[in-house]
Specification:
Blueprint: E1 12-14, E2 26-29, E3 34-39, E4 45-49, E5 52-56, E6 63-67, E7 78-80, E8 86-91, E9 97-102, E10 108-111, E11 119-126, E12 131-138, E13 141-148, E14 154-159, E15 172-173, E16 179-183, E17 186-190, E18 197-202, E19 207-212, E20 218-224, H1 228-234, E21 249-255, E22 267-269, E23 274-279, E24 283-288, E25 292-296, E26 315-321, E27 325-331, E28 336-343, E29 355-357, E30 360-365, E31 369-374, E32 377-382, E33 396-397, E34 403-406, E35 412-416, E36 419-424, E37 429-434, E38 446-450, E39 453-457, E40 461-465, E41 471-476, H2 485-488, H3 493-510, E42 516-517, H4 526-532, H5 538-541, H6 544-552, E43 561-568, E44 571-578, E45 584-590, E46 597-600, E47 605-611, E48 614-619
Length: 620
């Protein structure tokens, strides 16, 4: 799950003057000052203190594990490895190090300092052989090592010559569990169990990407110049060098079993940079800084001879098939998305490609038009000419992020331009449900479906409208002076619901043609994550594996309440509002204006710092 927010919290009090007293399910003493709190995908509560890192049982607060020597870890350097209980800590501070921890057992799987590693170049989970693979740089040269992901035991270590240049290509695992690894301009196939080199190939330029054919008998190795956006997605920020101008790159196909090149002449681009691929069942789309081309896995000759649509350094956002061809979308890195509509031969079907601003959160084919929602607005694109159907007074855009829900009849309801708007997809029209919300100067920022009604929310306000736009209730709570109100809004469950909807919509869009967006783990769905649990030993997961299975299949967030931070009679606290009735259901009060807390949207638990070295859990 995605973390909602943490800031800083202090002593906790409970107040019954205005609402029901909320008593904690449990409190746990951690003996050190709590810096931040998270809940990982397995439901384990992670607390970072000035005297160590702790893992707590979410059911009763029992301390499961403690790492007393892992201190002063900044939260931005703490990241879970998707679909696993493993945690990656990349500390960029004065005490720079890379740690990998099993978040269930607290076992230290890897510590770059103990291994004498100066810099970790990449990390890759190799489930087939039960390990985490590290590519590294030492004074003596680069290398690859594999560590058991339960106990941290080194399984093998294969030194390499020091790379001549930065390698963007992430290692990939073939169907036999062996590893394709690029080091500068050299490509290796390493035995998954022993690390022995099975074969080696070399290119003229450094490798920047690797991907397989659907049957995994062929590996495609891209070398040369990456686009700036491709580098931004695949390299550490400190390693980036933004540059303009043209470049060149090539793609060679190798037999996975032997490493032998399949083509006499590889795919060559002499005045463009590589921006990524989308993989289909029989062909793939290759994006570069001048345009895009479609290739069969069997030939270096493009299915599209030349596709004449603009320039720009675009990176692929997604591909959507239609009865006439496909629509593919490229991002220019400046908040603009370019929609390209081409037939099966790559011929543009629109004279001018439309440009849409904002993060694309939903898109769907409506037959003769494409409906889309972005963080900046919504519209229809005519399939006939690519023009927007809503113009003039019908043009729908917003300076604030657009929030949306689907109601019971599958109509989209959007909060945009300070209005609550219903979109009629069959008629390709929209109408206003409600507007002119009296939010005391605050801009409405979220909408949630409550039965057949709509809750419009902000940091300090919530109002409920029926389907006709009639106001059922409105609640306003004054913001505390000098509070972190804008940031605390992210700690409410409405944010989780909206983000979850965006991820789901984007996933459906991206997978429409590709089946996979190479190298982008953010599209990994819940079912895949659930299946991965079985790859970890029972001793590592224990009874939490069952808990994890339930969590992966759960809803993204509760839809029936909202938390608002406010101050009354010199008491500061979180008020829980029932969205159906607008009534207060409870209040947790704190004396601190910068609370340290996190909300687990799966189990509806509030975890917060209740004292310098104490953590409390509340059932919401």
């Amino acid at each position: 799950m995605k973390k909602l927010l943490t800031t800083c919290f202090a002593t906790l009090y409970l107040c019954a003057a205005y609402a029901q007293v909320l008593t904690p399910d449990w409190e746990s003493s951690l003996s050190g000052k709590v810096k931040w709190i998270q809940v990982n995908d397995w439901g384990i509560v992670i607390a970072a203190c000035d005297n160590g890192l702790f893992g707590l049982d979410p059911r009763d607060g029992t301390k499961i594990w403690e790492l007393s020597d892992v201190t002063k870890i900044q939260e931005e350097y703490y990241n879970t490895i998707p679909g696993t209980p493993l945690v990656l800590i990349d500390d960029k501070g004065a005490d720079a190090k890379t740690l990998i921890i099993n978040g269930l057992s607290g076992a230290l799987v890897f510590d770059s300092r103990d291994e004498g590693i100066e810099k970790v170049l990449s990390r890759r989970l190799v489930r087939e052989v039960g390990g985490i693979m590290i590519t590294y740089s030492k004074a003596s040269g680069d290398g690859v090592a594999l560590y058991n992901f339960n106990d941290g035991k080194e399984l093998w270590n294969t030194p390499m010559e020091k790379a001549k240049g930065r390698t963007l290509a992430q290692p990939v695992i073939d169907s036999e569990g062996h590893i394709l690894y690029a080091n500068g301009s050299r490509l290796f196939r390493l035995h998954g169990q022993t690390g022995a080199v099975l074969w080696e190939a070399e290119a003229k330029k450094d490798y920047i990407d690797l991907f397989f054919s659907p049957d995994e008998a062929t590996v495609f190795a891209v070398s040369g110049s990456p686009s700036d956006l491709f580098k931004a997605e695949n390299a550490e920020p400190s390693a980036l060098t933004v540059s303009g101008g043209v470049g060149k790159f090539s793609v060679q196909a190798h037999q996975v079993a032997t490493g032998e090149p399949i083509w006499k002449k590889p795919i060559q681009y002499s005045k463009s940079k590589y921006s990524g691929v989308a993989l289909g069942e029989s062909d793939y789309l290759l994006l570069h800084t001048l345009s895009a081309n479609r290739y069969s896995y069997d030939s270096p000759d493009p299915l599209w001879k030349k596709e004449k649509i603009g320039t720009g350094g675009d990176q692929l956002v997604g591909v959507y098939p239609t009865s006439d061809g496909m629509i593919y979308v490229g991002d220019d890195g400046s908040g603009r998305n370019y929609f390209n509509y081409v037939d099966e031969a790559g011929k543009p079907l629109w004279k001018k490609r439309p440009v849409v601003t904002g993060y694309i959160s939903h898109i769907e084919d409506q037959g003769d038009a494409i409906f889309y929602i972005t963080s900046k607005g919504a519209n229809f694109l005519s399939k006939e000419n690519g023009k927007e159907l809503w113009t003039g007074s019908k043009y729908l855009s917003s300076d604030f992020p657009v929030s949306f829900v689907k109601d019971s009849d599958q109509s989209f309801v959007l909060l945009a331009e300070g209005k609550l708007i219903r979109v009629d997809l069959p008629q390709k029209d929209w109408s206003v449900i409600g507007s002119s919300f009296d939010f005391k100067g605050e801009v409405p920022s979220g909408v949630r479906l409550v039965g057949e009604k709509y809750a419009v929310t902000g940091n300090q306000n919530v109002t409920l409208l029926d389907a006709s736009g009639n106001k059922v209730y409105h609640q306003y709570y004054e913001a505390p002076d000098q509070s972190l109100g804008a940031k605390l809004a992210l700690g409410t469950l409405s944010a989780a619901a909206e983000v979850g909807a965006m991820v789901s919509g984007m996933s459906a869009f991206a997978y429409g043609f590709t089946g996979a967006v190479q190298g982008n783990d953010s599209y990994m769905n819940k079912a895949e994550q659930q299946a991965m649990i079985s790859n970890f030993a029972t001793g590592a997961a224990g009874d939490f594996s069952q808990l994890a299975k339930m969590r992966f299949g759960a809803q993204a967030a509760s839809e029936d309440y909202k938390l608002i931070l406010t101050e009354r009679d010199k008491l500061l606290g979180f008020v829980k509002i029932d969205l159906a009735s607008g009534e207060e259901q409870g209040m947790v009060v704190t004396a601190d204006r910068t609370p340290t807390f996190t909300v687990d949207a799966v189990t509806n638990k509030l975890y917060l710092k209740s004292a310098e070295g104490r953590l409390a859990c509340y059932d919401l």
